[in-house]
Amino acid sequence: MGHLAAKDAFRELGAKLDGLNCRVPYNEALRAILRELYTEEEADLVSRMPDGLSRPQRLQEITGIPADRLKGLLEALTSKGLVLDLRLKKEYRYAPSPFVIGIFEFTMMRTRGQLNTKEWARLFHEYMEASPFWNANFGHGEKVSIMRAVAREEALPVEGHLEILDYEKASTFIDKAKLCAVGLCACRHEKHHLGTKICDVPLETCTAFGSAADYLIRHGLARETSKSEMRELFAASREHGLVLCADNVQRRVSYVCHCCKCCCSALSGITRHGYPNAVVTSGFQAMSAGRACAGCGLCAKVCPVNAIVMEEKRPRLSAEACLGCGVCVVKCGRRAIRMERRPQRVIPPETTFEKIILQSLEKGTLANQLFDDPRRVSHRLLRAFVGGFLRLDPVRRALASDALRSDFLKAIKAGVKRRGMKELLDL
Length: 427
Prior knowledge:
By secondary structure, the protein is α+β, with helices and mostly antiparallel strands. It folds into three domains: 96 residues, Winged helix-like DNA-binding domain superfamily/Winged helix DNA-binding domain (Arc Repressor Mutant, subunit A, Orthogonal Bundle); 195 residues, no CATH class; 75 residues, no CATH class. Helices cover 45% and strands 14% of the residues. The chain is built from 20 helices and twelve strands.
Protein backbone atom coordinates (compact mmCIF):
# COMPACT_ATOMS: atom_id res chain seq x y z
CA MET A 1 0.00 0.00 0.00
CA GLY A 2 3.02 2.30 0.35
CA HIS A 3 2.96 3.20 -3.35
CA LEU A 4 -0.49 4.77 -2.88
CA ALA A 5 0.76 7.50 -0.58
CA ALA A 6 2.40 9.49 -3.36
CA LYS A 7 -0.72 9.78 -5.49
CA ASP A 8 -4.45 10.39 -5.26
CA ALA A 9 -6.00 7.01 -6.07
CA PHE A 10 -9.52 8.43 -6.26
CA ARG A 11 -8.63 11.20 -8.69
CA GLU A 12 -6.88 8.63 -10.89
CA LEU A 13 -9.94 6.40 -10.65
CA GLY A 14 -12.09 9.35 -11.71
CA ALA A 15 -9.86 9.86 -14.75
CA LYS A 16 -10.14 6.15 -15.59
CA LEU A 17 -13.96 6.21 -15.45
CA ASP A 18 -14.09 9.43 -17.49
CA GLY A 19 -12.10 7.66 -20.22
CA LEU A 20 -14.68 4.89 -20.70
CA ASN A 21 -17.69 5.01 -23.01
CA CYS A 22 -19.63 7.14 -20.49
CA ARG A 23 -18.01 10.45 -19.57
CA VAL A 24 -17.77 11.26 -15.87
CA PRO A 25 -16.51 14.81 -15.22
CA TYR A 26 -14.51 14.96 -11.99
CA ASN A 27 -15.60 17.13 -9.09
CA GLU A 28 -15.96 16.83 -5.32
CA ALA A 29 -19.38 15.17 -5.66
CA LEU A 30 -17.87 12.39 -7.79
CA ARG A 31 -14.95 12.06 -5.40
CA ALA A 32 -17.40 11.56 -2.53
CA ILE A 33 -19.11 8.74 -4.45
CA LEU A 34 -15.82 7.01 -5.21
CA ARG A 35 -14.56 7.24 -1.62
CA GLU A 36 -17.84 5.76 -0.40
CA LEU A 37 -17.85 2.80 -2.80
CA TYR A 38 -14.17 1.84 -3.26
CA THR A 39 -11.34 1.25 -0.84
CA GLU A 40 -8.14 3.06 -1.75
CA GLU A 41 -6.56 -0.21 -2.86
CA GLU A 42 -9.58 -1.06 -5.03
CA ALA A 43 -9.49 2.42 -6.57
CA ASP A 44 -5.81 1.95 -7.42
CA LEU A 45 -6.45 -1.41 -9.07
CA VAL A 46 -9.36 -0.21 -11.22
CA SER A 47 -7.44 2.89 -12.31
CA ARG A 48 -4.69 0.58 -13.65
CA MET A 49 -6.99 -1.91 -15.40
CA PRO A 50 -7.40 -1.92 -19.19
CA ASP A 51 -10.68 -0.41 -20.34
CA GLY A 52 -11.85 -3.57 -22.12
CA LEU A 53 -12.28 -7.15 -20.96
CA SER A 54 -9.02 -8.74 -19.75
CA ARG A 55 -7.88 -12.13 -18.51
CA PRO A 56 -6.61 -12.32 -14.91
CA GLN A 57 -3.11 -13.07 -16.24
CA ARG A 58 -3.14 -9.82 -18.22
CA LEU A 59 -4.30 -7.88 -15.15
CA GLN A 60 -1.51 -9.35 -13.07
CA GLU A 61 1.02 -8.50 -15.78
CA ILE A 62 -0.14 -4.87 -15.95
CA THR A 63 -0.70 -4.20 -12.23
CA GLY A 64 2.03 -6.36 -10.70
CA ILE A 65 -0.38 -7.45 -7.94
CA PRO A 66 0.24 -11.04 -6.71
CA ALA A 67 -2.33 -13.53 -8.04
CA ASP A 68 -3.96 -14.35 -4.68
CA ARG A 69 -4.33 -10.69 -3.72
CA LEU A 70 -5.60 -9.78 -7.18
CA LYS A 71 -8.22 -12.53 -6.97
CA GLY A 72 -9.48 -11.21 -3.64
CA LEU A 73 -9.70 -7.65 -4.89
CA LEU A 74 -11.59 -8.69 -8.03
CA GLU A 75 -14.04 -10.75 -5.99
CA ALA A 76 -14.75 -7.76 -3.75
CA LEU A 77 -15.17 -5.39 -6.69
CA THR A 78 -17.42 -7.69 -8.73
CA SER A 79 -19.61 -8.37 -5.68
CA LYS A 80 -20.26 -4.62 -5.49
CA GLY A 81 -20.86 -4.22 -9.22
CA LEU A 82 -17.76 -2.03 -9.62
CA VAL A 83 -15.99 -4.46 -11.94
CA LEU A 84 -17.65 -6.63 -14.60
CA ASP A 85 -16.80 -10.31 -14.93
CA LEU A 86 -18.11 -12.06 -18.03
CA ARG A 87 -17.49 -15.66 -19.02
CA LEU A 88 -15.88 -16.03 -22.46
CA LYS A 89 -14.32 -19.26 -23.73
CA LYS A 90 -14.81 -20.95 -20.34
CA GLU A 91 -12.93 -18.30 -18.39
CA TYR A 92 -13.85 -14.98 -16.81
CA ARG A 93 -12.68 -11.67 -18.23
CA TYR A 94 -12.72 -8.47 -16.20
CA ALA A 95 -13.37 -4.82 -17.02
CA PRO A 96 -14.11 -1.67 -15.00
CA SER A 97 -17.83 -0.92 -14.73
CA PRO A 98 -18.70 2.35 -16.46
CA PHE A 99 -20.64 4.92 -14.46
CA VAL A 100 -23.84 4.05 -16.39
CA ILE A 101 -25.00 1.46 -17.18
CA GLY A 102 -22.86 0.16 -14.33
CA ILE A 103 -21.77 1.79 -11.09
CA PHE A 104 -24.97 3.75 -10.45
CA GLU A 105 -27.36 0.93 -11.35
CA PHE A 106 -25.47 -1.92 -9.69
CA THR A 107 -24.88 0.06 -6.48
CA MET A 108 -28.57 0.90 -6.13
CA MET A 109 -29.51 -2.73 -6.94
CA ARG A 110 -27.39 -4.20 -4.15
CA THR A 111 -29.15 -6.35 -1.55
CA ARG A 112 -26.27 -8.13 0.22
CA GLY A 113 -24.05 -7.05 3.09
CA GLN A 114 -24.00 -3.81 5.08
CA LEU A 115 -25.53 -1.22 2.77
CA ASN A 116 -25.48 2.55 3.10
CA THR A 117 -28.18 2.90 0.46
CA LYS A 118 -29.74 6.16 1.64
CA GLU A 119 -26.37 7.92 1.57
CA TRP A 120 -25.55 6.42 -1.84
CA ALA A 121 -28.86 7.75 -3.18
CA ARG A 122 -28.04 11.24 -1.89
CA LEU A 123 -24.55 11.21 -3.39
CA PHE A 124 -25.67 10.00 -6.82
CA HIS A 125 -28.48 12.56 -6.90
CA GLU A 126 -26.11 15.38 -5.98
CA TYR A 127 -23.68 14.41 -8.72
CA MET A 128 -26.10 13.66 -11.56
CA GLU A 129 -28.37 16.65 -10.93
CA ALA A 130 -25.82 19.37 -10.24
CA SER A 131 -22.80 18.41 -12.33
CA PRO A 132 -21.99 18.73 -16.07
CA PHE A 133 -22.66 14.98 -16.39
CA TRP A 134 -25.49 15.31 -18.92
CA ASN A 135 -23.74 17.84 -21.12
CA ALA A 136 -20.56 15.74 -21.18
CA ASN A 137 -22.49 12.76 -22.54
CA PHE A 138 -25.23 14.27 -24.70
CA GLY A 139 -24.39 17.91 -25.31
CA HIS A 140 -22.44 17.48 -28.55
CA GLY A 141 -24.98 15.86 -30.85
CA GLU A 142 -24.22 12.27 -29.86
CA LYS A 143 -26.24 9.68 -31.79
CA VAL A 144 -25.34 6.47 -29.96
CA SER A 145 -27.00 6.55 -26.56
CA ILE A 146 -26.87 3.80 -23.95
CA MET A 147 -30.53 2.86 -24.32
CA ARG A 148 -33.39 3.05 -26.78
CA ALA A 149 -37.15 3.13 -26.50
CA VAL A 150 -39.02 -0.02 -27.55
CA ALA A 151 -42.60 0.45 -28.74
CA ARG A 152 -45.28 -1.44 -26.88
CA GLU A 153 -46.30 -4.27 -29.21
CA GLU A 154 -49.94 -3.79 -28.23
CA ALA A 155 -49.71 -0.28 -29.68
CA LEU A 156 -48.40 -1.31 -33.08
CA PRO A 157 -50.85 -1.68 -35.98
CA VAL A 158 -51.86 -5.21 -36.92
CA GLU A 159 -53.39 -4.32 -40.26
CA GLY A 160 -51.46 -3.65 -43.44
CA HIS A 161 -48.00 -4.90 -44.24
CA LEU A 162 -45.91 -3.10 -41.63
CA GLU A 163 -42.76 -5.11 -40.93
CA ILE A 164 -41.76 -5.22 -37.27
CA LEU A 165 -38.19 -6.42 -36.77
CA ASP A 166 -37.12 -8.75 -33.97
CA TYR A 167 -35.07 -6.09 -32.18
CA GLU A 168 -38.17 -3.86 -32.12
CA LYS A 169 -40.22 -6.38 -30.09
CA ALA A 170 -39.76 -6.90 -26.37
CA SER A 171 -41.38 -10.33 -26.59
CA THR A 172 -38.46 -11.47 -28.76
CA PHE A 173 -35.96 -10.57 -26.01
CA ILE A 174 -37.78 -12.92 -23.64
CA ASP A 175 -38.29 -15.70 -26.19
CA LYS A 176 -34.60 -15.80 -27.17
CA ALA A 177 -33.13 -15.43 -23.67
CA LYS A 178 -31.35 -18.43 -22.14
CA LEU A 179 -31.57 -16.81 -18.71
CA CYS A 180 -33.82 -14.08 -17.26
CA ALA A 181 -33.48 -12.01 -14.09
CA VAL A 182 -35.30 -9.20 -12.29
CA GLY A 183 -33.88 -6.81 -9.71
CA LEU A 184 -34.48 -3.44 -8.10
CA CYS A 185 -34.88 -0.46 -10.41
CA ALA A 186 -31.91 1.76 -9.51
CA CYS A 187 -33.70 5.02 -10.35
CA ARG A 188 -36.87 4.14 -8.46
CA HIS A 189 -34.84 2.85 -5.52
CA GLU A 190 -32.83 6.07 -5.44
CA LYS A 191 -36.00 8.20 -5.42
CA HIS A 192 -37.47 5.99 -2.68
CA HIS A 193 -34.53 6.78 -0.39
CA LEU A 194 -34.61 10.46 -1.35
CA GLY A 195 -38.29 10.59 -0.40
CA THR A 196 -39.29 11.80 -3.88
CA LYS A 197 -40.89 8.63 -5.29
CA ILE A 198 -44.51 9.58 -5.98
CA CYS A 199 -45.60 6.64 -8.15
CA ASP A 200 -47.04 3.31 -6.99
CA VAL A 201 -44.77 1.29 -9.28
CA PRO A 202 -42.99 -1.61 -7.49
CA LEU A 203 -39.23 -1.31 -6.97
CA GLU A 204 -38.43 -4.72 -8.47
CA THR A 205 -38.78 -3.93 -12.17
CA CYS A 206 -35.27 -4.04 -13.68
CA THR A 207 -35.17 -6.95 -16.15
CA ALA A 208 -32.06 -8.56 -17.65
CA PHE A 209 -31.26 -11.35 -20.08
CA GLY A 210 -28.43 -13.72 -21.00
CA SER A 211 -24.94 -12.92 -19.73
CA ALA A 212 -26.16 -9.73 -18.01
CA ALA A 213 -28.72 -11.77 -16.07
CA ASP A 214 -26.00 -14.25 -15.15
CA TYR A 215 -23.77 -11.45 -13.82
CA LEU A 216 -26.57 -9.92 -11.73
CA ILE A 217 -27.70 -13.27 -10.30
CA ARG A 218 -24.17 -14.42 -9.37
CA HIS A 219 -23.53 -11.23 -7.41
CA GLY A 220 -26.91 -10.96 -5.70
CA LEU A 221 -28.00 -7.92 -7.71
CA ALA A 222 -31.07 -9.68 -9.14
CA ARG A 223 -32.92 -12.98 -8.91
CA GLU A 224 -33.50 -15.54 -11.61
CA THR A 225 -37.00 -15.58 -13.04
CA SER A 226 -38.89 -17.77 -15.49
CA LYS A 227 -40.00 -16.60 -18.91
CA SER A 228 -43.64 -16.78 -17.82
CA GLU A 229 -42.97 -14.50 -14.83
CA MET A 230 -41.00 -12.19 -17.10
CA ARG A 231 -44.00 -11.87 -19.43
CA GLU A 232 -46.20 -11.07 -16.42
CA LEU A 233 -43.75 -8.33 -15.37
CA PHE A 234 -43.94 -6.76 -18.83
CA ALA A 235 -47.75 -6.93 -18.75
CA ALA A 236 -47.81 -5.29 -15.31
CA SER A 237 -45.55 -2.48 -16.50
CA ARG A 238 -47.93 -1.88 -19.42
CA GLU A 239 -50.78 -1.36 -16.94
CA HIS A 240 -48.61 1.11 -15.01
CA GLY A 241 -47.94 3.03 -18.24
CA LEU A 242 -44.18 2.46 -18.11
CA VAL A 243 -41.78 3.08 -20.99
CA LEU A 244 -39.65 0.17 -22.15
CA CYS A 245 -36.06 1.43 -22.47
CA ALA A 246 -33.80 -1.34 -23.77
CA ASP A 247 -30.13 -1.94 -24.35
CA ASN A 248 -29.34 0.00 -27.54
CA VAL A 249 -28.32 -3.01 -29.66
CA GLN A 250 -29.99 -5.33 -32.15
CA ARG A 251 -28.55 -8.67 -31.01
CA ARG A 252 -28.49 -10.14 -27.50
CA VAL A 253 -30.29 -7.30 -25.75
CA SER A 254 -29.01 -7.50 -22.17
CA TYR A 255 -31.59 -5.45 -20.26
CA VAL A 256 -34.90 -3.64 -20.42
CA CYS A 257 -35.72 -0.84 -17.99
CA HIS A 258 -39.38 -0.23 -17.14
CA CYS A 259 -39.34 3.54 -16.76
CA CYS A 260 -41.77 6.02 -15.25
CA LYS A 261 -41.62 9.73 -15.97
CA CYS A 262 -41.33 10.65 -12.28
CA CYS A 263 -38.31 8.48 -11.33
CA CYS A 264 -36.28 7.58 -14.43
CA SER A 265 -32.91 9.34 -14.66
CA ALA A 266 -32.64 8.71 -18.42
CA LEU A 267 -36.04 10.28 -19.11
CA SER A 268 -35.10 13.20 -16.86
CA GLY A 269 -32.15 13.76 -19.19
CA ILE A 270 -34.78 14.64 -21.78
CA THR A 271 -37.45 16.39 -19.69
CA ARG A 272 -35.41 18.18 -17.02
CA HIS A 273 -31.97 18.59 -18.57
CA GLY A 274 -33.04 19.17 -22.17
CA TYR A 275 -31.12 16.45 -24.05
CA PRO A 276 -33.54 14.63 -26.39
CA ASN A 277 -30.77 12.24 -27.46
CA ALA A 278 -30.44 10.79 -23.93
CA VAL A 279 -32.70 7.95 -25.12
CA VAL A 280 -32.81 6.85 -28.77
CA THR A 281 -36.32 6.77 -30.21
CA SER A 282 -37.98 3.61 -31.44
CA GLY A 283 -38.61 3.21 -35.15
CA PHE A 284 -42.19 4.42 -34.66
CA GLN A 285 -44.00 7.62 -33.75
CA ALA A 286 -47.44 8.46 -32.41
CA MET A 287 -50.00 10.08 -34.73
CA SER A 288 -53.44 11.49 -33.98
CA ALA A 289 -56.38 9.52 -35.38
CA GLY A 290 -58.55 12.65 -35.51
CA ARG A 291 -62.29 12.20 -35.04
CA ALA A 292 -62.08 9.35 -32.55
CA CYS A 293 -60.54 11.69 -29.95
CA ALA A 294 -62.81 12.66 -27.03
CA GLY A 295 -60.47 15.41 -25.84
CA CYS A 296 -59.88 13.83 -22.39
CA GLY A 297 -56.18 14.73 -22.32
CA LEU A 298 -55.08 11.35 -20.96
CA CYS A 299 -52.50 10.93 -23.73
CA ALA A 300 -50.79 14.19 -22.74
CA LYS A 301 -50.84 13.14 -19.09
CA VAL A 302 -49.17 9.76 -19.65
CA CYS A 303 -46.60 10.87 -22.26
CA PRO A 304 -43.24 10.39 -20.53
CA VAL A 305 -41.44 13.17 -22.42
CA ASN A 306 -44.20 15.79 -22.77
CA ALA A 307 -44.42 15.29 -26.53
CA ILE A 308 -48.20 15.80 -26.45
CA VAL A 309 -49.96 19.02 -25.46
CA MET A 310 -53.69 19.72 -25.51
CA GLU A 311 -54.92 22.61 -27.63
CA GLU A 312 -58.65 23.30 -27.63
CA LYS A 313 -59.32 19.79 -26.32
CA ARG A 314 -57.31 18.20 -29.10
CA PRO A 315 -53.85 16.62 -28.75
CA ARG A 316 -50.98 18.18 -30.63
CA LEU A 317 -48.20 15.63 -31.09
CA SER A 318 -44.59 16.55 -31.69
CA ALA A 319 -43.01 13.92 -33.93
CA GLU A 320 -39.58 15.35 -33.12
CA ALA A 321 -40.07 14.92 -29.36
CA CYS A 322 -41.95 11.60 -29.50
CA LEU A 323 -40.01 8.59 -28.16
CA GLY A 324 -42.21 6.14 -30.01
CA CYS A 325 -42.87 4.19 -26.82
CA GLY A 326 -46.58 3.61 -27.50
CA VAL A 327 -47.71 4.38 -23.94
CA CYS A 328 -50.23 6.95 -25.16
CA VAL A 329 -51.71 4.47 -27.66
CA VAL A 330 -52.09 1.73 -25.04
CA LYS A 331 -53.73 4.10 -22.55
CA CYS A 332 -56.18 5.68 -25.01
CA GLY A 333 -59.43 3.72 -24.68
CA ARG A 334 -60.80 5.13 -27.93
CA ARG A 335 -57.69 4.28 -29.99
CA ALA A 336 -57.59 7.91 -31.06
CA ILE A 337 -53.81 7.74 -31.42
CA ARG A 338 -51.99 5.29 -33.65
CA MET A 339 -48.38 4.32 -34.26
CA GLU A 340 -46.71 4.73 -37.63
CA ARG A 341 -43.25 3.95 -38.93
CA ARG A 342 -40.91 6.96 -38.76
CA PRO A 343 -39.93 8.42 -42.15
CA GLN A 344 -36.23 7.91 -41.31
CA ARG A 345 -35.30 4.42 -40.18
CA VAL A 346 -33.77 4.03 -36.71
CA ILE A 347 -31.00 1.40 -36.73
CA PRO A 348 -29.28 0.52 -33.43
CA PRO A 349 -25.72 -0.84 -33.32
CA GLU A 350 -25.73 -4.54 -34.09
CA THR A 351 -23.85 -5.73 -30.97
CA THR A 352 -22.56 -4.48 -27.62
CA PHE A 353 -19.06 -4.40 -29.11
CA GLU A 354 -20.24 -2.02 -31.86
CA LYS A 355 -22.14 0.12 -29.37
CA ILE A 356 -19.11 0.57 -27.13
CA ILE A 357 -16.84 1.39 -30.07
CA LEU A 358 -19.28 3.95 -31.48
CA GLN A 359 -19.96 5.51 -28.08
CA SER A 360 -16.24 5.78 -27.39
CA LEU A 361 -15.69 7.28 -30.83
CA GLU A 362 -18.32 9.96 -30.21
CA LYS A 363 -16.98 10.76 -26.74
CA GLY A 364 -13.33 10.91 -27.79
CA THR A 365 -12.24 7.91 -25.69
CA LEU A 366 -11.79 5.26 -28.39
CA ALA A 367 -7.99 5.27 -28.10
CA ASN A 368 -8.38 4.00 -24.53
CA GLN A 369 -10.13 0.92 -25.86
CA LEU A 370 -7.44 0.28 -28.48
CA PHE A 371 -4.34 0.60 -26.27
CA ASP A 372 -5.04 -1.32 -23.11
CA ASP A 373 -2.13 -0.62 -20.75
CA PRO A 374 -2.50 2.89 -19.31
CA ARG A 375 0.89 2.67 -17.56
CA ARG A 376 3.08 1.85 -20.58
CA VAL A 377 4.73 4.89 -22.12
CA SER A 378 4.12 3.62 -25.67
CA HIS A 379 0.41 3.11 -24.97
CA ARG A 380 0.09 6.55 -23.37
CA LEU A 381 1.69 8.14 -26.42
CA LEU A 382 -0.54 6.18 -28.81
CA ARG A 383 -3.62 7.10 -26.78
CA ALA A 384 -2.67 10.76 -26.97
CA PHE A 385 -1.89 10.66 -30.71
CA VAL A 386 -4.88 8.60 -31.86
CA GLY A 387 -7.24 10.34 -29.44
CA GLY A 388 -6.14 13.76 -30.66
CA PHE A 389 -6.50 12.72 -34.30
CA LEU A 390 -10.03 11.36 -33.81
CA ARG A 391 -11.07 14.55 -32.01
CA LEU A 392 -10.09 16.78 -34.95
CA ASP A 393 -13.23 18.48 -36.32
CA PRO A 394 -12.73 17.27 -39.94
CA VAL A 395 -12.25 13.69 -38.71
CA ARG A 396 -15.30 13.89 -36.42
CA ARG A 397 -17.43 15.26 -39.26
CA ALA A 398 -16.25 12.56 -41.63
CA LEU A 399 -16.96 9.78 -39.14
CA ALA A 400 -20.50 11.13 -38.69
CA SER A 401 -21.21 9.60 -42.12
CA ASP A 402 -23.02 6.26 -41.77
CA ALA A 403 -21.02 4.77 -44.66
CA LEU A 404 -17.66 5.80 -43.22
CA ARG A 405 -18.66 4.62 -39.76
CA SER A 406 -19.48 1.22 -41.25
CA ASP A 407 -16.04 1.02 -42.88
CA PHE A 408 -14.42 2.16 -39.63
CA LEU A 409 -16.20 -0.60 -37.67
CA LYS A 410 -15.08 -3.20 -40.22
CA ALA A 411 -11.46 -2.09 -39.76
CA ILE A 412 -11.74 -2.27 -35.96
CA LYS A 413 -13.30 -5.76 -36.14
CA ALA A 414 -10.54 -6.97 -38.46
CA GLY A 415 -7.95 -5.76 -35.96
CA VAL A 416 -9.69 -7.56 -33.11
CA LYS A 417 -9.70 -10.80 -35.12
CA ARG A 418 -5.99 -10.45 -35.90
CA ARG A 419 -5.29 -10.14 -32.17
CA GLY A 420 -7.05 -13.46 -31.56
CA MET A 421 -10.00 -11.94 -29.66
CA LYS A 422 -12.84 -12.78 -32.04
CA GLU A 423 -15.12 -13.73 -29.12
CA LEU A 424 -15.38 -10.04 -28.16
CA LEU A 425 -17.26 -9.38 -31.39
CA ASP A 426 -20.11 -11.63 -30.25
CA LEU A 427 -20.85 -9.72 -27.04
